[in-house]
Amino acid sequence: MGEAVSRIEAELPQIVGLVNNAGVSSPVPFLEVTSEEWKRVIDINVNGTFYVTRAVAPIMVEHSLGRIVNIASASAQRGGGVYGRAAYSGSKAALMGIAKTLARELGPYGITANTVSPGSIDTDIMGGRLTDERKEFLLKELPVGRVGTVDDVAGVINFLLGREGGYLTGVTYDVNGGSHIA
């Protein structure tokens, strides 16, 4: 990881933003989760975020400027849901805690850390593109009357990475079409 970040630092403009968006889901119920499945999900979703952030944060500290955004999931807040279960929900909840810790520890260096928590978004992580039947089922829980798009999530991430998001840190933005109030 350090080698990749060193190359980015050498060949591109200063690193000021990091979005921890890599992740895998796991539809396996808790009583059926194997140690291997648990480790796979935690390694990618939690450890991947740790290692990338650990490599980038010192650069941000050196320049007293940075924005970190972790991508969690409504599944972390709901305890599972449409597709993710124990391993996925737990890993995404960890990302929320990590962002709050980063906000506290890195804030004095001019770095913000936040979380975006998408709900039902039409992406591959939900097990492939949504069928019309699945979308219809999801719509019953969504006050906005539609499944979210990647652009809905990207807009919030852009805001948090930009100058306008500079006073926000340690917060979670729910991008879920109102599913938590339904």
Tell me briefly what this model is.
With 182 residues, the chain is α/β, with parallel strands linked by helices.
Low-confidence stretches: none
Taking the alpha carbons of the first and last residues, their distance comes to: 41 Å
Estimated radius of gyration: 17 Å
Find the count of extended strands (DSSP E, 2+ residues).
4
Shape: globular
* Sheet having the most strands: 4 strands, parallel
The helix tally amounts to 6
> What is the topology, as strand order, of the major beta sheet?
1-2-3-4
How much helicity do the residues have?
A: 40-55%
Secondary structure class reads: alpha/beta
Report the average pLDDT across residues: 89
Q: What share of the residues does DSSP label as strand, in percent?
A: 5-15%
Order of helices and strands: HEHEHHEHHE
How would you sum up this structure, described in words?
It is a single chain. With 182 residues, the protein is an alpha/beta fold. Helix content is 47%, strand content 12%. Helix 2 links the parallel strand 1 and strand 2. Helix 2 (35-63) runs parallel beside helix 4. The model has no long low-confidence stretch (mean pLDDT 89).
What are the key terms here?
182 residues; alpha/beta; 4-stranded parallel β-sheet
Detail the topology: elements first, then pairings.
Blueprint: H1 2-11, E1 17-20, H2 35-63, E2 66-71, H3 74-78, H4 86-106, E3 111-118, H5 132-139, H6 150-161, E4 172-175
Parallel strand pairs: 1-2, 2-3, 3-4
